[in-house]
Automatic annotation (TrEMBL):
It comes from the Bacteria. Coiled coil: none annotated. Pfam families: ABC_sub_bind. InterPro entries: ABC_transpt-TYRBP-like, Peripla_BP_I. This is ABC transporter substrate-binding protein. Gene3D superfamilies: 3.40.50.2300. It comes from Desulfobacca acetoxidans (strain ATCC 700848 / DSM 11109 / ASRB2).
Length: 322
């Protein structure tokens, strides 16, 4: 009799445990199977990456936007660490720097990161296989070398290039140094001009003109917004050939635009995510180095530089495949 009573109690307890686990709202694993995007800020570039991700993953994604606010990011990443996600996609270098020390178990794929080796997520660019074991991703530095190559294809005789940078802003200085190395490798003469305030734009461009600069490159830094409106005016007036490498700078005046193709970046990140969803471990996937390029030529302005009249007065643009 005692044995029968104990068996009945045991079965009843098992039933209660199973009921608790299956009851909606009581499950400790209610977020399992979901994928979220943790984005530093909502920009057109980030939205294009997300569009590429959603196409590659064939699903809509929930986006957690930090709003470029570090304290908010700290709170949000801790919340994400407490969730049992199937996968987390991280967009932007600051978001990856927040993620690496806080999230150690959830599989992570990152994108929109030029250099992950100073974020804590990866350690040595010469060893892309060496990274935090739950994190992998795509490193996409700006396509500076491709900008030079395409510029020389259009204007092979114009080999004196110029660049404006902010000597007090770290990313601007790094871009200037990288571009200088690539320009030297390509056999270009490079003249650089510093600028820290929008009021200095006219003087900086005048200095480049006096030094007979033929082509001015707009790098993808924050400093470009200070001088790009005036530079684009000068480009439209054919004072300089303008090559735009900054996806945030819009408007007529650049003959050539060479930027990252952000939707393609998203698709490549989706490829990595699909591998993880199929069972691969992040630790087994080296960091991918790839900078898919979007090229656009203003053919009207190009024809004016080439010395023959355009077919019509409207600006015609074409997107090229590199």
């Amino acid at each position: 009799m005692a044995s029968t009573t104990l068996s009945a109690k045991y079965l009843f307890l098992n039933f209660l445990v199973a009921a608790f686990i299956l009851t909606p709202g009581c499950s400790p694993d209610r977020s399992a199977g979901t994928i979220k995007v943790f984005s530093w800020t909502s920009t057109p570039q980030a939205r294009n990456v997300i569009a590429g991700l959603e196409k590659g993953l064939a699903r809509s994604l929930s986006v957690v936007d930090i709003g470029a606010d570090y304290p908010t990011g700290v709170q949000l990443v801790r919340q994400l660490a407490s969730e049992r996600l199937q996968l987390l996609v991280v967009l932007g270098t600051p978001a990856l720097m927040l993620t690496a020390p806080e999230i150690k178990r959830t599989p992570v794929v990152f994108a929109m990161v030029a250099d992950p080796y100073h974020t804590g997520a990866a350690y040595d660019k010469h060893h892309p296989e060496d990274h935090q074991e739950n994190i992998t991703g795509i490193a996409s530095p700006p396509p500076l070398e491709e900008a030079i190559r395409q510029g020389l294809k259009l204007f092979p005789a114009r080999r004196h290039w110029g660049l404006i940078y902010d000597p007090y802003e770290g990313s601007s200085v790094e871009l200037q140094q990288n571009f200088a190395d690539l320009a030297q490798k390509a056999g270009l003469t490079l003249t650089v001009q510093s600028l820290t305030d929008q009021r200095e734009a006219a003087a900086a461009l005048e200095a480049l003109e006096k030094q007979k600069v033929q082509v001015v490159f707009i790098p993808p830094d924050q400093n470009a917004r200070r001088y790009s409106p005036l530079l684009l005016q000068k480009g439209a007036a054919r004072c300089f050939v303008v090559v735009n490498g900054n996806p945030r700078i819009k408007g007529k005046g650049a003959v050539l635009s060479v930027t990252l193709d952000y939707e393609a970046v998203g698709r490549k990140a989706a490829d990595l995510a699909n591998r993880l969803l199929a069972g691969a471990k992040p630790a087994s996937i080296p960091i991918v180095h790839d900078s898919p390029v979007k090229l656009t030529v203003d053919e009207n302005l190009l024809s004016r530089w080439a010395g023959y009249p355009p077919a019509n007065r409207e600006t015609r643009r074409r997107t090229l495949t590199p």
